Every structure is written in C-alpha cells, then in structure tokens.
Automatic annotation (TrEMBL):
<dbReference type="GO" id="GO:0015233">
    <property type="term" value="F:pantothenate transmembrane transporter activity"/>
</dbReference>
<protein>
    <submittedName>
        <fullName>Pantothenate transporter</fullName>
    </submittedName>
</protein>
<feature type="transmembrane region" description="Helical">
    <location>
        <begin position="296"/>
        <end position="315"/>
    </location>
</feature>
<feature type="transmembrane region" description="Helical">
    <location>
        <begin position="189"/>
        <end position="212"/>
    </location>
</feature>
<keyword id="KW-0812">Transmembrane</keyword>
<feature type="transmembrane region" description="Helical">
    <location>
        <begin position="156"/>
        <end position="177"/>
    </location>
</feature>
<keyword id="KW-0813">Transport</keyword>
<feature type="transmembrane region" description="Helical">
    <location>
        <begin position="258"/>
        <end position="276"/>
    </location>
</feature>
<dbReference type="Pfam" id="PF07690">
    <property type="entry name" value="MFS_1"/>
</dbReference>
<dbReference type="InterPro" id="IPR011701">
    <property type="entry name" value="MFS"/>
</dbReference>
<dbReference type="InterPro" id="IPR036259">
    <property type="entry name" value="MFS_trans_sf"/>
</dbReference>
<keyword id="KW-1133">Transmembrane helix</keyword>
<feature type="transmembrane region" description="Helical">
    <location>
        <begin position="119"/>
        <end position="144"/>
    </location>
</feature>
<keyword id="KW-0472">Membrane</keyword>
<feature type="transmembrane region" description="Helical">
    <location>
        <begin position="350"/>
        <end position="371"/>
    </location>
</feature>
<feature type="transmembrane region" description="Helical">
    <location>
        <begin position="383"/>
        <end position="405"/>
    </location>
</feature>
<dbReference type="GO" id="GO:0005886">
    <property type="term" value="C:plasma membrane"/>
</dbReference>
Length: 485
C-alpha cells in the first residue's frame, strides 16, 4: 500500500520530495478555492442567458438588443477593472482582495432576483463586472506565482474546467428549476437561480479567507511548514524585475509579451463568439427544439471544452512548450468555422461544428500559462499583462456580438461565422511569431528567472521571489539561467 501511495504521489506531484509536499498542500487549498470561485462565476454568467430564454425576457420587458446591452455593460466594466485588479495584487495581500470581491459579487447576484425592469439588470451587471473582474485574471496571476512551467498548464486547466462545469451546471440548474421550482414560494423559476448562486458563493468566500496563501514571498500560509514556505519562495527562481518605479511602463509597453499574447487571445475570443450569445440556442429554436433542449444541448459545448482544455494542457506541460498545441487549436478554429460557414444541410453538421469548436476553449489555460512562462522574470510585466490580456480581449468582445451576432439577426449568423473563420485563421502566424521570440529570448537569457540557492533563502531580500516592493539586485557574478520550470 505504501509503495502504491508513493507511486501515486510521484505521478501527481513529481519525484522531488520537497515539491511533492508543497504541491500536495497547494492542490487541496489554493487550487480548489480558485476553481470553486470560477465554477460559481460560470454558473452566474450562464444563469443570465438561461433566465433570459426561460422567462426573464418577458417578465422584465427586454426589447430589441437590450440583452446584448446587458452583456456589453458587464464586459465593459469587467475589462476596465482587470489591469488595476491584477496590479493591486502586487501591493495588497491577495486574500483581502479576493474575499472582498467574492462577497460583493454574491450580494449583487442576490439582488438581481428582485429587479422589475431590464435597465435595472443591465446596471447591476455593470457593477458586478467590476467586482468579478479579478476572478479569472487574478487567479491566473496567483497560480503563475506558485507553480512551475511543468506544473502550471494542468493547474490552469483544472481551474478553467471548473468554469466550464459552472457554465454547464447553469444550464442544467435552470432546466431543473423550470421543471421543479416554477412558482414555488410565488417566484418564477428564473429567479431561483440567482438566489441559489448567491447562497453558494458565501461559504466559498469564507474558505478563501482561511486558505488563500497570498504570494510565496509573503510566507503567510498557516498550513505550510517553515521549510515549505522557504522552498515555495525560491524554487521558481529570483525575479529580475519586481519593483514599481519609473521604468515599469517603459519596459511593459516596449515588450513583445504585452502585445502579442493579448492579441492572439483576443483573436481566439472573437473566433469562439459563435459559442456565446445564445447562438446555438437561437439556431435550435429555429429548428423546433424545446426550451428544455435549448438549455441542455448547448452544455455539450462545455463538455468538449473540458476535454480539449485538459488534454492540451497536459501535453503542453509534458513538452514544457505551448506552441505545438496552439497550432492544433488554430487549425481547429479553421475547420469548425468552415463547417458553419458552409451552412450544413443537416442538424448533425451544426452540432458537430459547435461541439468541435468547444475544444478550442483551451487557450484559457494554455495561453495564460504561455504568458506566465514568458513574463515570469518580471513581476510587474506579468501582473499588467495578465490583466491586459483579458481587457484587450473584452475591448473587442463588448461590441463584436452587436455587429456579428445581434439577437435581432437570429438564427441567421452567417456573417458571424465568416468573421470567426477569419479571426481563427489569423492566430496561426502570430503563434509562430511568439514561439520564435520565446526561443530567441530564452537563448539570449533575457527571459527565465535567476537560479538561486535555497540554503541562503533567509539571508537576503534578493531571493524573496514575488515580494511586492522589494528590489532584486542580483550580484554581477550571478549568471542568469533558465530553470527547468
């Protein structure tokens, strides 16, 4: 039994005993917290689309493009708050930031069920966007601070998968409410989901208060031993840059990482808009499918998203390289979009295309891990780029559906399918460019952290990993080396 347990631990957390002890604890505290929060985020966002087609539209008097305006109001505030949010994590203990945001988000979700007009829901969505902005990018930033290059992809995938599961569960919950809770307590089924999601979020926020370990350099996690704290603070290597000074914006704005990773992530987000905005549900309605089917069948997209995200992340971690799986994702963009552009003569063709394209949600894990790989040497660059990656994305996503996927055009979204084909195809040359620049800069020793000796971890502030405000002044005789992380 002992031998079998050891083999399992090695398979899960590697052969290094120090890494195994640390990762085992992080994987049952840090990772579950962010994963559960992202799960609830998925449930919440899915609840709006499910509620809209299940009675909220008529009850609150949504007209024309007001559903699109609701999503746009949320996305605009969400996008604006992301870079400030990730930057805040470099100067304020992450535990305080996340728990405050979680509680506020939960209260706003609860209030939604009391709304009586469409404009009220639109306004609440905008406010909620500000508090939920940290949920995704903040989690990616924290995960990138604790996990090595060979560990990060699968953890980011687990985190993202919980979001996909939340989106799937949102549809299932709403379908169940339609069948079992309609008019219970005098409330229509679509209102119950907002109450349920809010009640679910509070315990997870409290879990975060106890188990968020902040950043490695804080050495604040009560459940880590002194040795584990020191190991966590040094095992990824020392940063080359980590202080807020006058050079921050110059080195960020002149870096290729700040522009290219957010750019391909934006292209990805525009490409998969046919999987958002109720596009599949509108198409199903035009084909005579029932409301229950319109809630249930699109969840298959998220099942294939889970599969693709996990598989691509595992492969990229094993390779310790992200570009190979990125090419495969780009080719899938082209194949799936081409099928939709061709207007299949059977429903099977549409279902196949939608479900195939679901696998291309993988960049949420793979490309954020890639971004962490190439910005890990610079604390501020990583924080700002993490926020900008989603903000730049949403700067386009906020208006793109209004042009290519307006509710008034349903179910004919041919123009949107063509746009997805173009944006998906454009990812390929930029993936190649990023891969070239990464290999070039690793060869030059420009990116990658500085290898440090854990035995002197307590003797110098230079080794204090991600500690905010502490400059890194590496001795001139320390040779920068890319770690195998």
């Amino acid at each position: 039994m002992g031998s079998a347990t050891t083999k399992l631990a090695i398979w899960l957390w590697g052969s290094d005993a120090k890494d195994r002890a640390l990762l085992a604890k992080l994987d049952v505290t840090l990772l579950p917290y962010f994963s559960l929060i992202w799960f609830l985020f998925g449930v919440t966002r899915a609840s709006y689309s499910s509620a809209y087609i299940s009675g909220m539209k008529e009850a609150l008097g949504f007209q024309g493009k007001e559903y699109n305006y609701m999503s746009t109001a949320y996305l605009v505030v969400y996008a604006v708050c992301q870079m400030p949010g990730t930057s805040l994590l470099t100067i304020v203990r992450p535990k305080y930031v996340f728990v405050t945001a979680n509680v506020a988000w939960s209260v706003l979700t609860l209030i939604t069920y009391k709304m009586t007009h469409a404009w009220q829901v639109i306004l609440l969505n905008a406010i909620e966007g500000g508090f939920s902005a940290i949920a995704y990018v903040g989690a990616q930033f924290i995960l990138g601070s604790w996990y090595k290059r060979s560990e990060l992809g699968i953890r980011a995938a687990v985190f993202c998968v919980f979001g996909q599961m939340g989106t799937m569960a949102g549809g299932w919950i709403q379908a169940g409410l339609l069948a079992t809770l309609a008019e219970r307590g005098g409330l229509p089924a679509w209102k119950w989901i907002f109450i349920i999601v809010s009640v679910m979020t509070i315990p997870v926020a409290l879990f975060g208060w106890v188990f968020i370990p902040d950043l490695p350099a804080h050495r604040a996690a009560w459940y880590l031993s002194h040795e584990e704290k020191e190991h966590a603070a040094t095992r990824l290597g020392a940063l080359r840059k980590q202080s807020w000074d006058v050079t921050v914006f110059k080195r960020v704005l002149l870096s290729w990482q700040f522009w290219l990773l957010p750019f391909i992530f934006m292209l990805y987000s525009l490409c998969v808009q046919m999987l958002q905005n109720n596009v599949m549900a509108y198409w199903m309605a035009s084909r005579g499918y029932t409301t229950i089917q319109q809630n249930n069948y699109p969840t298959g997209i998220y099942a294939t998203a889970i599969f693709g995200t996990v598989v691509y992340a595992i492969i990229s971690d094993k390779l310790q390289s992200r570009w190979e799986v990125s090419i495969a994702i780009g080719l899938t963009f082209i194949i799936g979009s081409s099928i939709l552009v061709s207007s299949p003569s059977t429903d099977t063709g549409y279902f196949f295309a939608f479900y195939l394209l679901g696998t291309t949600f993988a960049p949420q894990a793979v490309w954020y891990s890639w971004m962490a790989d190439v910005t890990g040497h610079d604390f501020q660059l990583r924080a700002i780029t993490t926020g900008f990656m989603n903000s730049f994305d949403f700067a386009f996503v906020t208006w793109w559906p209004l042009v290519f996927y307006p509710a008034t055009a349903a179910p004919n979204f041919h123009k949107g399918y063509v746009a997805s084909l173009v944006t998906g195809a454009l990812t390929l040359p930029f993936i190649g460019l990023i891969a070239y620049l990464e290999q070039r800069d690793r060869a030059r020793g420009v990116i990658g952290r500085i290898e440090v000796d854990e035995s002197i971890g307590d003797e110098t502030d230079r080794l204090r990993g991600d500690e905010p405000g502490k400059p890194v002044d590496a001795p001139v005789n320390v040779q920068a080396a890319e770690l195998n992380v």
